[in-house]
Amino acid sequence: MEAQAQGLLETEPLQGRDEDAVASADFSSMLSEQEKEELKAELIQLEDEITTLRQVLSAKERHLVEIKQKLGMNLMNELKQNFSKSWHDMQTTTAYKKTQETLSHAGQKATAAFSNVGTAISKKFGDMRRK
Prior knowledge:
Elements: H1 2-8, H2 16-24, H3 33-70, H4 75-91, H5 94-130
């Protein structure tokens, strides 16, 4: 009996099929008329609040655009600023600094190697001329 009782108390979250079953369930028959009316009133109030919030957000977005225009800010300037900030942030990372040091060191070694090769070639040409 205890095993059956545990099966009724599932601890797993609802899965797709379970969510569909809950969504299609008709809970209205379990509610009293007063509860239904209260929920309908709450629904109307929430919809009104959402509409108001959307209107406020839209007005604030328009105001933001106006301020940016007055300040001479446009999309290109913002992109430049964002790029500059991102580039600066990247340059200050440890990985970038280590990579930069490694590449610098490799460049110095490559320069020295090319210089040595150039010197060796010049010496060989000099030897060939003397013969």
